[in-house]
Amino acid sequence: MGLEDDLERYREVGEKRRQDLTEFIQYGDLGDSRPDEVKVPIKIVDPPEFVYDPRDIGGVGQGDGGTPDVGDPVGEPEEAAGDGDDGDDGDEPGEEGADHEYYEMDPEEFARELDEELGLDLDPKGKEVIEETEGDFTDITRSGPASTLDFERLFKEGLKRKLAMDFDEEYIKEALRVEGWGPEAVFEWARGEHIPVSRAWIDDADGSIPDGERSRWVSIEEMEANVDREATAARIRREGIEEIPFRRSDERYRYPEIVEEREKNVVVVNIRDVSGSMRESKRELVERTFTPLDWYLTGKYDNAEFVYIAHDADAWEVDRGDFFGIRSGGGTRISSAYELAAEILDEEYPWSEWNRYVFAAGDSENSSNDTEQRVIPLMEGIDANLHAYVETQPSGNAINATHAEELERHFGDDSNVAVAYVQGADDVVDAIYTVLSTEDDDT
Amino acid sequence: MSMDDRIHKQRIADSLEEPTREANRLARKLGLDPFPVNYWIVDYDEMNELIAYGGFQRRYPHWRWGMQYDRQRKQRQFLGGKAFEIVNNDDPSNAFLQESNDLADQKAVITHVEAHADFFRNNEWFRMFGTDPEAAAMLERHAETVAEYMADPEIDREEIEEWIDHVLCLEDNIDQHRPFSTSGEWEEDSPTGEDIDEQLEELDLSSEVKREVFDDEWLEQISEDEDGPTFPESPERDLLAFLTTHGKAYDGDSGKAVEYEEWQRETLELLRKEAYYFAPQKMTKVMNEGWAAYWESKMMADENFATEDEFVSYADHMAQVLGSPGLNPYKLGFELWQYVENRRNRRAVIEHLLRVEGVTWRNFNDTVDLDAVLEELEPDPVVDDPVGHLEELDPEDPRIDREILSGVRDGELDHETVETYPWKLLTYQGLAERHYSLVKREHRGFLGSVSQNELERTARYLFETDRYGSIEAAVADVDRTAGWDRMFEVRESHNDVTFLDAFLTDEFVEDNDYFTYEYTHTTDDFRVTSTDAADVKKKLMLQFTNFGKPTIAVEDGNFRNRNELLLIHQYNGVELDFREAKQTLERVFELWGRPVALKTIRKEFDEHDIEVARRRDREPEPTEQGTLIRFDGESFEREDLPDESVADIAATDLDYDTKPDEWL
């Protein structure tokens, strides 16, 4: 019982009421998610109430430095429902417009769920040797989970520090009672004696010495001869310790011994045609198809990296943030992208260490002969678990847009090349299925 | 909690010991009378939990708290994670301070909290729930009860959560103006038709009277046709009580209404009790927040409770709180309280000035030099800077705290203490003069803005018109505590509705640039419709009356003679949100177990009228149509009612429409 419990129940309820994944992929708002966090809207119904119609009730506002004129428009009142229809008949609760809650899943969960919904079965392969954490907690590091904190060591270091910082206060105060000595002289002297006292402390203590006692000792020598300096250890034994000065820098965390293991790592190359013919609707379909593929592969592999290549007649590498937004003029030469992809993969992602996926999307338009003469040989030359081309052509095939067909004709049912056609959002999930179910097990 | 954590919190608690102690003393000096407050130091996560739980540590289990917590966390992450105050209405009150706030913020919270605790204790609306809320204990008990039901293998947890949701839809459908009573007590107080015979017996009437007045015909009439009587006798606004007493659950398997299970009845009852507990806070939001903001500023800024270097951060915080856009209850309340204070102080001054020889309301503006009056009203240097005048202070002066003064003079109290807290040397009366509102820079114009009308009205109620020989003598006699005294009276008896009604004056609306807006059909957006004070007030009242929600009442628990439930919407010119209303009816069905209906009035716009209006740049006139919506558990049906059937619920002289007649 308690909030933790409520939070867990909320996750359960959220999972149950979240939008169906295929529906989410095809029609949902993908823009709220991040590469490492998929946010699926939850249909949460806030308890309904008897309330006034938000339009009919109007409201009161306060002018910002002056009264506005009658007839001036005011911003949408905060509480006005987004849809604004009179809802006379059965709108589903929790629809667009209302505040969404999100069921957040990491890519692993996304991949698991998608496997389940689409009946996929993609088995990632281990490649590069990396370090894994498994074994006894014998090593020590400076940060880690609280449960692995080496408290004994922290305490010892604190104690050492305490001993080093401590000094006999009474002894210093006696020095202030030497005739003619002020804080400055005492500080100099204490420094010489290696007593770790601050000037501020001495100034403070000086104020508490009654005037009558200021010349108790004729000289420092006389004081030293008559007053015993008590060792810190003796004092601690006598008085005990009130407080141990713990310092973050003393914290050490026990860390498990390192065991080697192969990591399942993947690089995904996303290629997109950004030429003039790729209008908004085509662009959106590419995003809808590629984004879930990215999540899926991120979730399947231990380590996923992404390369984004945009091209028209030339190709260039871009950041993910820019990838789906770019529009360019110019013609189209798909091979330019594969040339760049081959270069990047060879340099940074050797086939011996990386699983590779090369996904391209566009409207199938290409320069004449480019597909046959350049692209196909390039694709054959790039070792990869899977090559895919996704044609996004909302209006069906254009006459000279034959790239996808040519690929299909050439590769046929060849194991590791997938070709998918997306005319509208309805086709997205099928395309994803086509792509992900094509990978051959013995690649 | 780790040791580090504990040490850290302890250190903060130590550093706040003096501020909390002194804030309470100062509050008491200023005339506040707060519940004792327990302060708790909490970390960021704990603060989020408290916010999600509505200011308490334990609530009944429900996933919605988890959702709120999640929302809260994300929102505060986004906003930078500062929270300023959580205090709950309890005796003692509990207030929570977030450890990461700096000292200036903590002090601001503490002063704010003391004022809330005073409001909780002294505002009469909070007494509706009884004299001792025992809130934390009650909510914890509720939490345990519900948790036990949930742990019961016979009861499905989800079913309980759903049941709670059904009830929460109606949490504002209580009778918040009546003192809380358990639904058992409520039932005894509400006669139903079934009891009529019994009641007639109790009345002990002679048989002649019975025969004459309560004849069979009458009995039959009130019992509607053959069998079922109509009840309640008059429309009942406490839907939750009515349902607890007469409701049934709907059993989907048998398709029949069945008696509530024990857990259903208990859960409904405890949620109803919580609704009554939280109602006063909803009813006094503007007053209560304004009250806290007012006294916080008195203490923090005017009494230098914030040290100089803390002041900037405090001022920044205050500006944020008061500056958030839209209709801001903090700001509205704060301004209204200042207005209450100024207005009463002004009246006290005017009353005295009108008693000066030769001054009448007619010649007031020509004979009285208001700048000179303000000069006279400036606080005596002795109260303005008591520490600087320590030698001159007179222990017999009612403005001086005699005990503290003698303490300082005897050396029992060190000088430093009164230098830090000069208010210690003063009494309530002394402090009232020290902080006298009319001479403050921001209010200096207030005295001069008195209207001719107010002068005349004030003069009319004065009996002794010639008492003072000079203006100086009259001003010297002005009671400087009048403003504060009035504020304390008002905080005792008002709620937001009466508060706005009484103090939201034309002058106030105009000074603060308030305006109303409405949806306009011709432009399909919201437009400013009026800056007239009366219109603004009308709209504002609508937002605060009955939690800003339409009034719904039970009209008949035996509707159509079939034990259906008929609710009525007491229409005031603003129609319901029908989508929400229908969804709510579905939930009411779950709590009633049988078909439910709602009688209301709907506004209809003719397409043609809209078009014509658009062309003429006017607003179309709606037709008001009586409507009955009925839900039988599966589907809705809607029936138009003739005007005479809705005469009982129709708006009479109420009109919340502020659109000008000639539009634009």
From TrEMBL, chain A:
InterPro entries named among the record's database cross-references: UPF0229 (IPR006698)
Region described as Disordered: 28-102
Acidic residues: bias regions: 75-96
Pfam family, one: DUF444
Biased amino acid composition, Gly residues: 58-68
Record field: compositional bias (Basic and acidic residues): 31-40
NCBIfam families listed in its UniProt record: PRK05325.2-5
Matches recorded under PANTHER family: UPF0229 PROTEIN YEAH
Name of the protein: YeaH/YhbH family protein
